[in-house]
Amino acid sequence: MSTERDESDVQSSADDENFTADYDSKESTVEVAPSSESVTFTLSLPTQVRATPEHEAAVSIDDVAVTAHHVDPAALATTSFAFAPAAIATTPTEAASGAAPIPELPPVDRPTTRRGRQRIDVRPAPETATMLTAERLINQGKKNRRPAPEGFLQQILYALTFHLVNVGDSYSVRERKALEARITKTFSGGTRFVPVLTRKGGVGKTTITALLGMALADTREDRIIAIDANPDRGTLAERIDKQTRATVRDVVMRSESLHTFSEFQTVVSRDETRLDVLASDTDPHVSEAFDENDYNIVADMAERFYSVAITDCGTGIVHSVMRATLQRADSIVIVSGGSVDEARLASETLTWLESNGHADLVKNAVVALNTATQGTNLVKLEEIEAHFKSRVREVVRVPYDASLATGSVVHYRDLNKITKNAARELAAVVMDGLDEVRTD
């Protein structure tokens, strides 16, 4: 009974006492110091000794004691050693144990970075921009894929079959694209000059000039200009919304200061189709002063900024401006009305050109048959067409349009569909007669 009480007292007293532990690698001793008695526990732990691997021991550095308060200055000197990776030999211990030797350093010409491993073939020189061709960059599968068709039924079939069935464009769309391809014909070798002329006034020469220029400017991506070279006060600038009061006279006077296209734009007016129009002199007292030399100055300026220049000529076919115009002409457009006298005067214009050394222009000429003039319904237009086809390359009919009959501003978007088609056909026929590469 006494022994159980003593053990209970010892246990309750141990909760309030301090413990002191002394631990090392061989044994651990815990001493409990109660008020009356002390109990000592001794635990024997195994000693853990780490064995150094032989490949670590081969490259280990021996510990050298260093005095903290004294450093030899000679020990701070830097010494360089040159050695070859192949000269490193294994220790006898490594050779006996079969341990792997120290790996050799990589050669200098071997790429050691991730970027170097990815790009093994290093080009000697950088590539130029011309090497980024479509054949190199475009996936052939996507390149050869046909574009979506145009046309009501064609588009429905294309959508219902999830773009698997492509029957191509409709007939009207194919005709339109073929016409646009003719109009957008590319040229090299300078500006192409196309005079529009006739010996009779009032047949719609200025209107045909505006229609031709608008059709070209609306379809082509380059710059088109229409020059009013009528020495008798032309009205070409009145067919569009004028944005400047400048005329050909201003171009002649300011030719030395018009160096850039932005400066030249201040003397021309531009309509909704991006057609630029250069007006003629409005003062009848000075209009006759516009001569051959003045036209050459204006044409030289237009040749710097435009791809196609259309010239609205006057009725004075023997005027000096006409001589300069025909010398620069690449093709000509003869305007004829639908009456007997209008057709006869247009044919006489061709005869005059043939007699004055311009037979090549006559063979390549285009006759615009304006059917909006008086008397058109009373004559046989087929006979007029047959006559001109025997002398020129092509004949194009221009139908009546109320927007043109007023003689005021022409809005190309508001024209009838057949009128716009006729203007586009005239533009395509004129472009067909122009050489892609100028040889002279």
TrEMBL record:
GO terms for cellular component: cytoplasmic side of plasma membrane; cytosol. The keyword Protein transport does not apply. The keyword Secreted does not apply. Residues 1-19 have a biased composition (Acidic residues). Residues 198-339 form the CobQ/CobB/MinD/ParA nucleotide binding domain. GO terms for biological process: negative regulation of cell division. This is MinD-like ATPase involved in chromosome partitioning or flagellar assembly. It comes from Rhodoglobus vestalii.
